[in-house]
Specification:
- By secondary structure, the protein is α+β, with helices and mostly antiparallel strands.
- It folds into two domains: 129 residues, Sandwich (Jelly Rolls); 63 residues, Winged helix-like DNA-binding domain superfamily/Winged helix DNA-binding domain (Arc Repressor Mutant, subunit A), CATH 1.10.10.10.
- It contains seven helices and eight strands; from the N terminus they run αββββαβαααβααββ.
- Strands 1, 2, 3, 4 and 5 form a five-stranded antiparallel sheet that branches.
- Strand 3 and strand 4 form a beta hairpin.
- It starts with 9 loop residues before the first helix and ends with a strand.
- 25% of the residues are buried.
Length: 203
């Protein structure tokens, strides 16, 4: 787990935790909503967040997860340009989050090379994440996308049994619940997973 002692070097660490605020959020908390102005940049210390995009018909699709030691580059970019958020960030599992004021996050780019490296590495990672989403939607079948999502959640929670509904999976993939249920049943028949009420176990 990322701690106050090892997230950055001692000088930047001191500045980051002196300027920011550490808060704990339960799973399901919306810490950044669509069309809201960005006042602080989140760095996840423990737990995880999921970042989604919502269309005009209120359909959502999962863009990426934010894990310990990571932040949301899209909130950073919107924040420094005083723009409204184009994404929603929700706590996936109970999380401890360091909230950094936008003005500080912007100033540190000129002051701390390590912070600049952190921001650029996040930009690269999120760009690759978004390319994967585009590739999956354009070229992969629903069963491949669903299995990838289940494995990603399994890695995130460090367990094979997942407490997740068919509707939740459908929302994150941007497809219908009926399609998810049909694919899950076929995956169970193929011996890839085991289904029970609101639980899916990877084999």
């Amino acid at each position: 787990m990322i701690t106050k002692e090892n997230i950055f070097n001692s000088l930047l660490n001191k500045e980051v935790f002196a300027s920011g605020m550490v808060k704990t959020f339960p799973a399901g908390t919306v810490i950044l909503d669509l069309h809201s102005y960005i006042r602080s940049i989140p760095i996840v210390l423990s737990g995880s967040l999921k970042v989604t995009k919502t269309d005009e018909e209120q359909r959502e699709i999962l863009l990426y997860y934010i894990k310990p030691g990571e932040s949301c580059i899209m909130s950073f970019l919107a924040g420094i340009h005083n723009d409204k958020s184009k994404i929603k960030a929700v706590v996936e599992e109970d999380a401890e989050v360091l909230l950094i004021p936008v003005n500080k996050a912007s100033d540190w780019i000129k002051e701390f090379p390590e912070w600049t490296d952190f921001i650029f590495s996040l930009y690269q990672k999120r760009f690759e994440d978004l390319l994967e989403v585009v590739n999956a939607i354009a070229f992969q079948k629903a069963d491949t996308r669903l299995l990838h999502l289940l494995k990603e959640k399994s890695d995130l929670y460090h367990k094979k049994e997942l407490s997740v509904t068919h509707q939740q999976l459908a929302d994150e993939l941007g497809i219908t619940r009926e399609a998810v249920s049909r694919v899950l049943k076929q995956m169970e028949n193929d011996g890839l997973i085991s289904l029970s009420r609101n639980k899916i176990s990877l084999m």
